[in-house]
């Protein structure tokens, strides 16, 4: 703890807690008792069996705990988050304050943000979807927000392909109940993204 506190950003402090029991239940209780802003999860140097368990835990944490979560893939390399991709269904977000976690990134790196949707068919951005993007832009107080549709029959593969083609270095997923993104929040998706993608994934809850 002392080594970490002296070795990294002076604005950060580190403390440690340990507990016995279910990882998900422990984290859930901890976030209910403490003002946690972000859960960070990584998976470096795990065996195949450990990755399966971690993938299950990651999915459960994302599904059951209403706290932003940052998933760091095993192959991720630290790059300044200057190009952010937000997977969206372009439907109204009830609580736009979920994007407030991006404001420090905006202030430090002035990133480009792309709101995108993976679709089986060719689609074009409508005026309503541009208005949706403008509402996010207004909340973040930034102008560098764009929209895009990406055609692919497989939403998981399409998401990864879009990230790679557009050189996205932070992928944001919005966990909305009963939305198209439910297709993303299952074990196979978590495994593919967390262990095969090369960028961090920030999960927000609406």
Short descriptors:
206 residues, alpha/beta, Rossmann fold, seven-stranded mixed sheet, 7 strands, 37% helix, globular
Outline the fold blueprint.
Blueprint: H1 2-7, H2 23-33, E1 39-42, H3 48-64, E2 69-72, E3 83-87, H4 103-109, E4 112-119, H5 127-140, E5 145-151, H6 155-165, E6 170-175, H7 187-196, E7 201-205
Parallel strand pairs: 1-2, 3-4, 3-6, 4-5, 6-7
Antiparallel strand pairs: 2-7
Question: Care to describe what's here?
Answer:
This protein is of the alpha/beta class. It has a domain at 83-205: Rossmann fold (3-Layer(aba) Sandwich). Helices cover 37% and strands 19% of the residues. The chain contains seven helices and seven strands; from the N terminus they run H-H-E-H-E-E-H-E-H-E-H-E-H-E. Helix 3 (48-64) links the parallel strand 1 and strand 2 (69-72). The longest helix has 17 residues, at 48-64. The model has no long low-confidence stretch (mean pLDDT 80).
> CATH homologous superfamily name of the domain at 83-205?
HUPs
Radius of gyration: 17 Å
- The CATH level-2 architecture of the domain at 83-205 is identified as 3-Layer(aba) Sandwich
How many individual β-strands? Answer: 7
| Total of DSSP H or I helical runs spanning 4+ residues | 7
How are the strands ordered across the major sheet?
A: 1-2-7-6-3-4-5
Shape designation: globular
Mean pLDDT: 80
- Main structural class: alpha/beta
Which sequence of SSEs, written as H and E, runs from N to C? HHEHEEHEHEHEHE
If you consult CATH, what is the topology of the domain at 83-205? Rossmann fold
What is the CATH C level class of the domain at 83-205, in words?
Alpha Beta
Query: What percent of the residues sit in helical stretches (DSSP H or I)?
Result: 25-40%
